[in-house]
Amino acid sequence: MKLLMKILSNARYSNSELSAALQKTAAEKPTVGIELVLYEKVGIGNGKHANNPWLQELPDPVTKATWDNYLCVPPAYAKQEGIENEDVVEIEGVKIPVLVQPGMADEVMAMAVGYGKKDSGKAAKDVGINAFPFIGYSNGYKNYHRDNISINKTSKKHTLALTQSHHRMEGREIVRETNLETFVNDPKSIKQKKHDTTLYKEREFEGHHWALVVDLNACTGCGACAVACQAENNVPVVGKEEVVKKRIMHWIRIDRYYKEDEANPSTVHQPIMCQHCDNAPCENVCPVAATTHSNEGLNQMSYNRCIGTKYCINNCPYKVRRFNWYKYAGDDKYGFNSAYEDGNMVLNPDVTVRSRGVVEKCSFCVQRIQEKKEQAKLENRQLEDGEVTPACAQACPANALIFGDLNDPNSRVSQLVNSNRNYHLLEELHTKPTVSYMTKVRNMGAKIEA
Amino acid sequence: MKNKHIVSVFDSEENLVNAIKAVKENQINIEEIYTPYPVHEAIHGVGKKSRFTWVAFFFGLIGAIVVLAFLYYTSVIDWPLNFGGKPSSAFPSFIIITIVTTILIITLGSLFTFSVRAKIYPGKEAVMPDERATDDKFVMMFHYEDDSEQLRNLLHENGAEEINEKEL
Amino acid sequence: MYKEAIRGPLILGNKSFRQISADIIAPIDKRPPLWWKAAFGLSLLMLAYGAWAIYRTIFLGIGTWGVNNTVGWGWAIINFVWWIGIGHAGTAFSIFLLVLRQKWRTSINRAAEAMTVFAVMAAALFPALHMGRIWNFFFIFPYPNTRGPLWVNFNSPLFWDFVAITAYLLISASFWYYGMVPDFATIRDRAKNKIKKAVYGVLAFGWTGSTREWLRYENLSYVLGGIAAVLVVSVHSIVATDFAVSVIPGWHTTIFPPYFVVGAIFSGFAMVMTLMVIIRKIYKFQDYVTDKHLDAIARILIFISLIMGTSYATEVFVAWYSNNEYEIFTFFHNRITGEYKFMFWAMIVCNALIPQLFWSKKIRRNLWAMFTISVIINIGMWYERFNIVVTSLANDYLPSSWTNYAPTVEEIGVFVGTIGLFIAGILLFFKYIPMMAISELKSVRDAGSKFKKRIEEMKIKSEDEL
Prior knowledge:
The complex is a heterotrimer.
Chain A: H1 2-10, H2 15-26, E1 34-39, H3 53-57, E2 65-66, E3 71-73, H4 75-81, E4 87-91, E5 94-100, E6 108-112, E7 136-138, E8 141-143, E9 145-149, E10 152-157, E11 161-162, E12 177-179, H5 180-185, E13 210-215, H6 224-233, H7 240-244, E14 253-259, E15 266-272, H8 281-285, E16 291-293, E17 299-301, H9 311-315, E18 322-323, E19 359-360, H10 366-378, H11 391-395, E20 401-405, H12 412-417, E21 422-423, E22 435-438, E23 440-442
Parallel strand pairs in A: 1-6, 3-5, 12-23, 13-22
Antiparallel strand pairs in A: 1-9, 2-11, 3-6, 4-5, 4-10, 7-8, 13-20, 14-15, 16-17, 18-19, 21-22
Chain B: E1 4-10, H1 13-25, E2 32-34, H2 40-46, H3 52-78, H4 91-118, E3 138-143, H5 149-157, E4 162-167
Chain C: H1 4-7, H2 17-29, H3 34-60, H4 75-99, H5 109-129, H6 157-190, H7 194-203, H8 211-244, H9 256-282, H10 291-322, H11 325-336, H12 341-353, H13 361-365, H14 367-394, H15 409-432, H16 438-444, H17 447-465
Helix pairs in contact in C: 3-15, 4-5, 4-8, 4-9, 4-14, 5-6, 5-9, 5-15, 6-7, 6-8, 8-9, 9-10, 9-14, 10-11, 10-12, 12-14
């Protein structure tokens, strides 16, 4: 305490000392050649939580890679040197796989810190390369970048576990975007055209009709919703091998698409979870009635009835259903919870743990809906808007996920659904999803008055 | 209880057919004819008729009604579930299941009826007047009481190779 | 009605009935030849591989296969449809041709029906195995239970499949078996060996050949024939609805039910041709499976190949005409061109182009050519099912889910096991069961000459009247 007071009493602004400090840092020469930048990933950070399997399996918001770090390389450089994704290169004696990253500046490469741990535990062991040795020191400062880097090609390859391998929307209207100018001047023009003919009498939902709205303007692609869902619903961690086989179990995923030129693309993120379609293609084809529609608009999944024919997985146009290919829960090979002494305490007792051979998917956190309904019933009142929040909506730092009751005209969801920006994904299939998205409005090319 | 029978053996379908015509013209009763493959004149000659096709039809009719009723009961009355927003009384689905199940019911019913009426079933012992009837001979059998000189002459005229007496 | 005189005798060599029985029963009386033992041994090896693969699938999980959350069905369903397609031959031969009174079916229908039974057995294995929880398979039966009672989803094509395949297996097996009863009686009555007599005696159900039996036998054949004809069309149409009721581009098309049925008859007849060439060559049954028989099958194959070609062209045309971006992508960028173009073009060449070689009479008379082309047809049909199942799933609506599929050793093992099952079944059939319908052959031996005689009688009558 005394020392602190002494330091503080001596703290005084000094212009000369500031200039001297600035001169030291300015003495750095401009970068020569290719610069290596060290960065912290959203999930792993500086590596303190590298042993958290949820964070290892969280796909990087931009690269969609899990369970590894890699050298991010600009596309022009990769083409020039003849390097492809998953090629192993050697950089100052360290072997690391390459990931070609659209949009990287031409003379920059990047590597994430926090990987390459040996003794932190089962999840972190031997995952990725330790990038900390690349930190430079100059004039008493740590530099998270190095210049004049050269890399050598090797003939080896290292598989990267990406959850998404196709990055373009192929001209399909998946993430709708519009210009700020259009949105301000002619908002009605951006409203999605609906195709609403049907042979059958439509089902009515008296009582609640739960819905979710995703605001694409707010979503940053961070992935907090995916981890929150995993925590809430006992979604298993499957490990790198299974992610490579495209068997990641996340009930909510964030699709990332690149638009325009590869050297300088614009990026869009879209969280996709079960759309809880009122005309669900999946419900129709399950032979044993394991998936049905509730009278509150939820697409229900009865795990104990499922015999695992996987027709529902095939028939879902959004591909949001997940299959338990192996015994992921409680298994030595796949059960990451069992790596810890009290690992099973991470499970939520309100939600079943699924067995091998069973399909699962987002349930709109039905356990939370039921809990709040019961509470309201006990208290002899109606549910209020915003009282029921699924885990993803609760965790989202940008409030991009809004959950509520469509049958309540005053709920936020009802108002958002009536907005011009609101649209359904793959609307022309007439699946009538209760999840809807808000068109992304970008300020593209409007002049900023000085 | 064993009975005696007159068993005549022919070696071609033609001869058998002529013999049948001759015997029928003389109003003699044929007990049974055994052939290696179905011969229509023989079947008519013995006077056998069958309402088999009617039986099959009724199996089909009743089967279809039962199946449709079951489907309607389970899907509309007992526990109607919401599958993809479709109505609970899903006639296109019901009719497909009804068609196939009715075919199955007709088949199983027909096989059962066949076994009963033709007396062909696992464990039955074959009572054969002449074992060559399944190979290359055509056998015509009469009751012992219908035996007569006239009959034997007719048979010989029309190409009977052998005429035996047999106890079955 | 059937102008036999134009086509020539159905059985060559002026055989007596006794000769016919002897010829066809000969393989049952003789010891199995060396080639039979070698082939049987090979099929047992294949069955062993299959058994290992099945063990791993059931005890470790469907994770041992190559399927994933985008491509949920792979080789298992391709093979299921392939086998069912092959199985349609027997029913088509026995039943369609029975109803159409085509007597030339008689030397082929028994083997074709045997093929159906083994093919459907092989096929039925796949829907069972591909289930994640096969031990709960009984959930698919709509039986009264204490869970509600919870019935099943009658709208699901997989339930329709279950009913249809079960019905098909039971009906083909019983139609095949009841057809053999008179022949078992023939073997029983000719047998000198006591054990053989007893065994075939039991199998013959006490058949004596009386009119009482024949009358109802014929009625049974026509009744079963009539309704099973409906079954042939409906079973494979139902298998087609597995895909047609889906929303996935490339699956969602009304052409599938007729396309699948025609394709099934195509692959079935091709497999029959393969088997008949083998029977004719190895068992030396040229007098029964004549050039004319094989010629007739080849002509049918040309016709069906043209229909298949038209179907493929129709699919592509409608995809273009619809102007639907997903359909156009699926056909033009994911089949005709794109990463799956080899599978697509293999299908076109093997199914629509190569069978056209049968227009040449020379090729219709060449056994090797017929054998090769019939095998190529079945390979082409396998590629057709691959096209349908995998390419549509792999690249569907949302590009973020696009992924690849490749089979694993376990998936391949199950397929190899079913081929072993089929071969073993057919070999056992050759050894223990008369491979042609003895009684039916006897009934058509004189068909041509009977007709000729009737024409002559009519001529004489009319001359007399004049």
